[in-house]
Amino acid sequence: MDPLAMGLMYLAAALPLAGGITGSTTGMRHAASVGASVLAEDPTQFRNVLILAALPMTQTFYGLIQMIYIMLMYIPNLPLDSINMTKALALIGIGLAGFLAEYLSAWAQGIVCANGIAELPRTKGSNLMSSIVLAAYVELWGILGIVFTILGLSLLG
To answer: Which terminal Cβ of the chain has fewer Cβ within 10 Å, N or C?
Structure first.
């Protein structure tokens, strides 16, 4: 067993969580900053702003699920003699794919939610459900990030 390869595998496991955290933070910051402007105009929209601004948070949980799966289900079940730099670099590639899926999904979802928030005062909140549905389309890529990570791990062996 190569200790450097093992360390890189644990680094790879953390990548999807890092993508989820940074993407969620970016998406929520964008949506919440638009929400602050909307609330200055119409404070009765607080509940709707809160719901839409919180939606990009879910990708952090998806990244956490991927990290836990890699650290508890994949790495411990590897035969020690199979842990090498090739497998570690392949796992980093899978981790980077998870990172990008969660980061980009949360970032784009924040933009969709911010646009929904911006329209709340004009529509008197009637666009909430349609904004949530549109944000769910973008969220699908975060969910698919979990699927692709697990599929990639099964192909890696």
So the answer is: C
- Between the alpha carbon of residue 5 and those of residues 33, 58, 69, 75, 125, the distances in Å are 42, 30, 18, 11, 52
Nearest to 63 by CA among 28, 1, 12, 113: 12
The DSSP secondary structure of 18-47, one letter per residue, reads HHHHHHHHHHHHHHHHHHHHHHHH-GGGHH
**Per-residue pLDDT reduced to its tens digit, 88-139:** 999 999 999 999 999 999 999 999 999 999 999 999 999 999 999 999 999 9
Residue with tokens 């450097």: 4
DSSP code of 82?
G
User: Which amino acid, one-letter code, is at 73?
Assistant: M
* 148 within 8 A of 97, measured Cβ to Cβ: yes
Please name which of 113, 101, 105 lies closest in space to residue 29, comparing C-alpha atoms.
113
Structural domains of the chain in order of their starting residue, each with its CATH number: 3-156 (1.20.120.610)
Rounded CA gap, 90 and 80, in Å? 16
